[in-house]
Amino acid sequence: MQIPVYIISGFLGAGKTTCIRHLLAQTAGKARVMIIENDFGEVSFDAQVLQSAGVQVQELTSGCICCTLSGDFKQSLQAALRGRDVDLILIEPSGVGKLSDIITACQSPELADTLSLRQCVTVVDVQRCALYLRNFGEFYKDQISHSQVVFLSHVDENPQAVAAAEAAVRTYNPTCRIYAEPWEKLPLGDLVFSASAGIELSGSPVQEPPCDQDRAHDHAAPFVTCTLYAKEPRSAAAWQQVIRAGISLEGAALVRVKGILPTPSGYIQVQYNGGALTCADSMVPGRSLTCIGTSLQEKRWRALWEEV
To answer: Which InterPro entries match (predicted)?
Structure first.
């Protein structure tokens, strides 16, 4: 029995998890779904959010998915097959992973009898598209060029950027389907789970590359991560103050901040991806904050954290 697999890729902060949540909400009860979640850092913030929706989530943290697909992922897949409680698998790779590497791993000979890769989707943030193409072109172009479907995100915040983002996507992938409408207005189940003959990578047989898990891969080399843990609750204003100080400290080197932190009255969800810092009440408990960047002044972050 082959389990259909769908990959939802996209750069850091593009909105992959939000897209998956809308997809699951629209298709609730129609299929038993397992999500393979690969976050870049010690704690998977996205997995926490998805688990709160009652979905099976297999976490792969602190590493690249092309390494862990050969170990943890295979074990998870085998367990799912034994239990026969999964109809399809969604893979949400790290935002700094190359989609072509993930396709290669999914098409390895060892997985050929149990896994059928049906479709690759990439979420593109229209607000950051031009910037990320300039600064992180190797990863960004790879994610776009290997997708069959591209969903544009943050369209409402910056509608004037849609045309330029569409043109950029077409430059690197002239045949993909592009959707710029709000996700709640799209039939995501039909668009993502549509019938497909399967995925081909560059039109040639796929060979699984050797993988040394003790050596940093080229595709992760430009990025570093730092995870900070909350010792006790603080006010939302206090958390935002220290995070803004860290953002100011790092400048353009900081690409992504996300986490869930405790307050005297509950928890807040914090996110930043180069624009405004957002903070909202969270029903999901948590005590950590992950920062991702091209370089990070970790000691100064930790000093700021202690001052809260």
So the answer is: CobW/HypB/UreG_nucleotide-bd, P-loop_NTPase, Zinc-reg_GTPase_activator
